[in-house]
Design brief:
The complex is a heterodimer of chains A (156) and B (120). Chain A has five helices and five strands; from the N terminus they run αβααββααββ. Chain A has one domain: Heat Shock Protein 90. Chain A has a five-stranded antiparallel beta sheet with strand order 1-2-3-5-4. In chain A, 34% of the residues are buried. Chain B has a four-stranded mixed beta sheet, with helices on one face. The chains are: A alpha+beta (156), B alpha/beta (120). The interface between A and B is medium-sized, with 35 and 27 residues.
Chain lengths: 156, 120
């Protein structure tokens, strides 16, 4: 991307990750998100919220989209997860792309924390974190690049 | 970003689990294993020391909630102390080291901490 293009789009920086479908790479992803948020001048609190939303999203993709981690011997041919971390002047956007099973993002219910605790659930808080900890969350299944979950967090 | 380390300390009939680093979808099975061992040994008085915890995912939080429920069903106790440095904003723990026979002390502040976590 040229300097002229960056100026036109308001993009200040970006990172692209391609990681295997394995939970052990979640910390790599979280660290990249935190680093870009710090570069953007986002507060620690907001950065942590975006970090958590991305972590929960990626965990869900591995568990539900791909039905578990990839086998070591099949890993080179596994599409894994691709992440585009984009720093704009006023926001950070994380696009998470996968080739797993798509799901109906809008139909997926959010369990509020009070209800979660009242019911003593052991699962189900992830979607709350994904949808509530960012300013915008959009999901587009089966694009040319795969299923795309796009999370946006404003810097200020 | 530190690797997850879980250390268990026994004090009479009380077990203290010192949680350090990040508890995420990769590392939370270690917590499940540690808690399962305690349950198998009928050691249900547990304090979670979250002072060194950098990160906790919803899966790990669910493990803790599940253990607390099962421990309570076994007329046992659990509590946590102190809060993780960074955590699910809705999961901040009590900071109390006390344990209660009837109700796990760490579940009470969870509902009350929601507003604290909703800055945006």
């Amino acid at each position: 991307m040229t300097a002229e293009n960056k100026k036109e789009t308001g993009i200040r920086g970006y990172v692209t990750l391609h990681v295997p479908c394995r939970y052990s790479y979640l910390r790599v992803i979280r660290q990249a998100v935190l680093d870009l948020c710090a570069r953007a001048g986002m507060t620690e609190f907001k950065s942590a919220q975006l970090e958590m939303a991305v972590d929960e999203s990626c965990s869900n993709i591995i568990e539900h989209g791909y039905a578990g981690e990839s086998e070591a011997d099949l890993e080179p041919r596994h599409p894994g997860l691709r992440l585009n971390l984009i720093q704009h002047t006023d926001r950070v956007i994380v696009e998470i792309l996968d080739r797993g099973k798509a799901f109906d993002f809008n139909e997926r219910q959010v369990v509020e924390p009070d209800q979660y605790l009242e019911d003593e659930r052991e699962r189900g808080l992830g979607m709350y974190i994904i949808k509530r900890f960012v300013d915008e969350a959009e999901y587009e299944p089966a694009t040319e690049a795969g299923n795309c979950l796009r999370l946006m967090k404003r810097i200020r | 970003m530190r690797e997850c380390i879980i250390q268990t300390e026994q004090r009479d009939d009380l077990d203290i689990l010192h949680l350090d680093g990040a508890l995420d979808a990769y590392s939370f099975p270690r917590l499940e294993t540690a808690l399962s061992k305690l349950r198998e040994q009928h050691r249900n008085r547990v304090v979670l020391d979250c002072g060194g915890l950098d990160y906790i995912s919803s899966a790990a939080l669910g493990t803790l909630i599940g253990f607390a429920r099962r421990a309570r069903e076994g007329t046992a106790t659990s509590s946590s102390s102190p809060s993780p440095r960074r955590s699910t904003p809705s999961s901040n723990c009590s900071g109390s080291t006390r344990s209660s026979r009837s109700t796990p002390t760490w579940t009470r502040p969870l509902a009350g901490s929601r507003a604290e976590g909703m800055e945006s």
